[in-house]
């Protein structure tokens, strides 16, 4: 248990920040899932549209260091590869 006023405040801030980061991480996963669903459905136009939206979300999350920049780049690369493989 936090014993000082500073520690109590930091605990409150940690709870709020955790909730905020969790919401952003959830949006990230939802965006990636949207692209994967479009690819699985075979709809390249929808996949490209959702990929553009997902890229924006992924970059924002990486800039805020909620996920590592390399993980974000890896997700974007793999999603893009999946979309490109649809044409082949």
Automatic annotation (TrEMBL):
Binds directly to 16S ribosomal RNA. Belongs to the bacterial ribosomal protein bS20 family. InterPro entries: Ribosomal_bS20, Ribosomal_bS20_sf. This is Small ribosomal subunit protein bS20. One of its GO terms (biological process) is translation. It comes from Parvibium lacunae. Keywords: Ribonucleoprotein, Ribosomal protein, RNA-binding, rRNA-binding. GO terms for cellular component: cytosol; small ribosomal subunit. GO terms for molecular function: small ribosomal subunit rRNA binding; structural constituent of ribosome. The lineage of its organism: Bacteria, Pseudomonadati, Pseudomonadota, Betaproteobacteria, Burkholderiales. Residues 1-21 are annotated as: Disordered. The keyword Ribosomal protein applies. Pfam families: Ribosomal_S20p.
